[in-house]
Amino acid sequence: MDLVQQLLYMLQGISTTLLISIFSFLLGLTIGLPLAFIRTYERGFAVFVDAFEKVFRGIPELVLMLLFYRGVGLFLAFPFGDAFFTATFVLGLRSAANQSQIFKGAIRGVGEEQMVAARSLGLSRLQSILRVMIPQVFIFSTPGLGSEYALLVKDSSYAFVIGVPVIMEQADRIRKATYDPVIPYIVAAILYILLTFPLATWLDTWGSRKKKQLGL
Amino acid sequence: MSFLAENLPLIVDGFILTIEVTLFGIFAGLGLGTILAIGDIYGGKIVSTFIRFYVEFFRGSPIIVQLFISVYVIPAMFQTLIDPIIAGFLVFALNSAAYQKGYIKGAMQAVFEDQMQAGLSVGMSKPQTIVYVILPQALRIVIPAWSNEFCSLTKSTAALSILGIRDLTSAFQSIAIRSFRVLEAWIMCAILYLIWITIMTKIFDIVYEKKKIPGIEISV
Q: Could you tell me if residue A103 is inside a domain?
């Protein structure tokens, strides 16, 4: 395996890692944000949301991937026979549980008064959530979302066990082909650090600047 | 369920190893993390730059990469052999220390800036103030963050199974292969982790309720 080929392998690893992280982040967002509001404003559903969070935060990602890919995939070859889909699905649900917690904290941070003020102006509950609460909730939750994204980039490496060509899997393939145990893993470590570091810090500073700007 | 009863010894052994690694990681990580936090706050520029690199490596890269580096890269570079189990114990301790340093530093800084002054003004030395005044309070405040760290550490120990170390996940891996009841085996495995983590979280909650400092609540 020559150097160009190794480089192409790593590039594929980077793009797969990014795709899994971004898709599962978006899946987590679309499930997590509504869950946080349901949990806050519909007390009756709180039990279910809590149970969902407990389950997906209390089981190792690795076990969940094996459970869905090897176990459920046996009976439902579509869609769980596909390793990439399964990894994204599992990380997305795990992320939904985390993001629901992040947004719950942010909703509390924004404060009940904002909701009351919006309602008193005649907005409906849905309108006040969409127009008043959500824009502020996002600013409050940027640091949390940044570290959640970094966590997803790191946890996508677990998809290695079901053979998804993430950075870790590609490093392993290169090691097997070149018999060099040092460089591939060091490169993998550096790539992961580069992929997690900048965005998380940038979101963190952006969030605090925005918060100061708006006087929150 | 009979396939579980047959494999009970395997499951118990795996469970014990998972618990051992987690407990070792969390306590060794606490000790090292506390030292790192103190070093970062009071150690001067060079020390804290070094600590930053350490933390950035262990928090920025996945646990699988760290395990593979300790089992493949380091032995190849220094022409030695490292027992994967020992490597596993060490990696989890070092990894957890990097996270715990952050929590402990946050707790020490957020509340106790003025307590340092107070300690010095009554004639205590700097180390004395850290050990007798600041740390006992910081460690009480940090319990909720510690509980989260315990959960994520437990979950990441599942990665040991990739190295062929016989932890809980790897026990169920072989059960799934041998019994052909793949789905049941993995569901059982997931439930065991869930029960263990739920119980431990409850215990942490109880300890925090008992030990928390009234009036001081920060999220680190």
A: yes
Nearest to B158 among A55, A63, A172 (CB): A63
Confidence of residue A181 (pLDDT cuts 50, 70, 90): confident
Touching check for A181 and chain B: CB below 8 Å?
yes
- Work out the pLDDT band at B217, boundaries 50, 70, 90: low
**What pLDDT score does B111 carry?**
67
d(CA A139, CA A203): 10
The answer as to whether A66 is a domain residue is: yes
The parent domain of residue A58 ranges over: 18-159
Which domains are assigned to chain B? Answer: 2-211 (1.10.3720.10)
User: What contacts 24+ positions apart, CB below 8 Å, involve A109-115?
Assistant: A109/A140, A110/A136, A110/A137, A110/A140, A110/A216
Nearest to A189 among B65, B154, B194 (CB): B65
* Digit-coded pLDDT (tens) for B46-70: 999 999 999 999 999 999 999 999 9
Helix/strand/coil for B180: coil
Nearest CA in chain A to B69: A185
- The SS3 of residue A187 is helix
